[in-house]
């Protein structure tokens, strides 16, 4: 891989250029140059790479699938909005060499290695930026300029003292390793050393028992603290001698605090930790709106990249709008608009290849509603052929039907590796399983005669309406497509009482955000009860032509499962979505609290006292410090941020709150706040906590720097690091916050 490899860089079906690609000696930078001119075209750092996809997992590579086999193709995906790099190797062996090599570089086996690697990479990247003449050395003026680039505004005398201490060769310049020493002195963590000394008798090391005391008293680890202390020493202590003596140095202590175990996110909740054997309606499900769009709703670009990105982000409910295309082939696009179009067969091919990369949990909806009836019958038949290739199960493929309750309320566990089609259906599921199911209700002997007769009359009217709708469905819907719809039959919403009397758990209603808000305001408890037994989908207002989003929290507060968002639009709303679904193995399913799974629940989000369980809890957050915060995008050269931290609480109305620290002037490198914020949570089971770092501006709106969002249930108390994410939800290493968390009743 380091010798340089000749590969094709592909931008479109007609643009395929040969380039030499080479991993530089630092093992952290890749450059590529034109085969024809020999001129270096571009270079990128390994730290810029988010992931590597094998095969035809991009729109560009799918367009050349007939020309190049999948085993020779791979896609390099970058953080942020930088475009993908699609490559075709000369052989499958060369492709595997690059894919495996890149995976090893960007996905080290342990978090301490990641932390060390990121820090080292970060130092090297900055050094190379500042080393203008590429002689591998920097004088004091160059170092001062570099500090400005790194968001550090330091007293000149102090900076010179650190520079001279690191200049071991006394040459007046810093070479590579000397600059690393300078950087380490610069990043000395006094707040961490102070905490270390509190528990260390000699101030130089933590013994096994001292570390166990820290874990028990500060980190609130209540079981097996000595065993855990031993594990942490073995895992994070860099000195072999210290490991052999079962002690932890200050460096090892910092490594632990910056690790997954030292993160604010409970590591036990990163994997699949919730019960997956409950009915689908008992889960919040990560859901996207018009998944094929990667821009606006009127003229935006439709792309299979939208599906790939959503699936990679943990989304389990996708939307596919099908319309008639040329020669009867269904096309996917936003109907009655000017968005571009993609063939339906490309969409289902992509879903078949990428649906199970991150999760085996079911896709409860490849939503084709209301679009399933858009294509004419021939186009619908073509769609069914594509669906069968995607292995979307019909009721026969799904297996036995069992009892009615099991059939109507399947679980994620039962539906693993299944894709469910949401759309129109001729008749009901019971019609398939048990024969006609729309019978008039029984009337008991003690019913009032007039009331009984009125109920019979209403039932007859409903039967007539149902028969008319059924006939219309038969006229417009192909039977084969109808048979693909099993557990997610679209039905109109006509009120909670109507639904309770005549709808089925296998049916689903879609509501606009405005309609949902009105129901939340007027019938909050009934909405929660309804969502305890049937799926509800919420979608954005048609006025959101810019693909903006509504807050999903108010919909989750009443138990709505499928809250569809525009995944292409970054912001607070998608931060909440990512924050909720970052748990449970990122499988796209989160189990609702017990009081939201009870069909007779009294809970109403507007009245927190209606929740059964313990009283309010107090969340206390001490914001201690920040580390290596990024500069604001498009900021002036030499500008240094004035960071502040705002903590936002999202949940039931009584819990909505935010507080912020003061701003620290001209220090984005290692700001210290040491401020305490306190919140009272009445329904912590529904609360999401969002940490936001901003650059204070007294004359205009503050600029976004970074954020991290998580569900309250996933918070780990104690001294914790918060590893910040960008506006797009991607990692921005090594930027972090250091906080102390306490939770009391």
From TrEMBL:
Bias-annotated ranges (Polar residues): 374-388
Pfam families, A to Z: C2, EF-hand_5, EF-hand_like, PH, PI-PLC-X, PI-PLC-Y
Biased composition (Low complexity): 359-373
Keywords: Calcium, Cytoplasm, Endoplasmic reticulum, Hydrolase, Lipid degradation, Lipid metabolism, Membrane, Metal-binding, Nucleus, Repeat, Transducer
Biased composition annotated in UniProt, kind: Acidic residues: 432-453
Residue ranges constituting the C2 domain according to the UniProt record: 597-726
Cofactor(s) this protein requires: Ca(2+)
Catalytic reactions on record: a 1,2-diacyl-sn-glycero-3-phospho-(1D-myo-inositol) + H2O = 1D-myo-inositol 1-phosphate + a 1,2-diacyl-sn-glycerol + H(+); a 1,2-diacyl-sn-glycero-3-phospho-(1D-myo-inositol-4,5-bisphosphate) + H2O = 1D-myo-inositol 1,4,5-trisphosphate + a 1,2-diacyl-sn-glycerol + H(+)
Protein EC: 3.1.4.11
Membrane topology classification: Peripheral membrane protein
GO terms under biological process: intracellular signal transduction; lipid catabolic process
EF-hand domain: residues covered: 118-153, 154-189
EC class (word): hydrolase
GO cellular component: endoplasmic reticulum; nucleus; plasma membrane
Chief location: cytoplasm
PROSITE patterns tied to this protein: C2, EF_HAND_1, EF_HAND_2, PH_DOMAIN, PIPLC_X_DOMAIN, PIPLC_Y_DOMAIN
InterPro entries, per the entry: C2_dom (IPR000008), C2_domain_sf (IPR035892), EF-hand-dom_pair (IPR011992), EF_Hand_1_Ca_BS (IPR018247), EF_hand_dom (IPR002048), PH-like_dom_sf (IPR011993), PH_domain (IPR001849), PI-PLC_fam (IPR001192)
Location in or out of the cell: Cytoplasm; Endoplasmic reticulum; Membrane; Nucleus
PH domain mapped to chain residues: 1-107
Region called Disordered, residue ranges: 355-412, 427-470
GO molecular function terms attached to this record: calcium ion binding; phosphatidylinositol-4,5-bisphosphate phospholipase C activity
Residues in PI-PLC Y-box domain copies: 481-597
Name of this protein: Phosphoinositide phospholipase C
Gene name as annotated: Plcd4
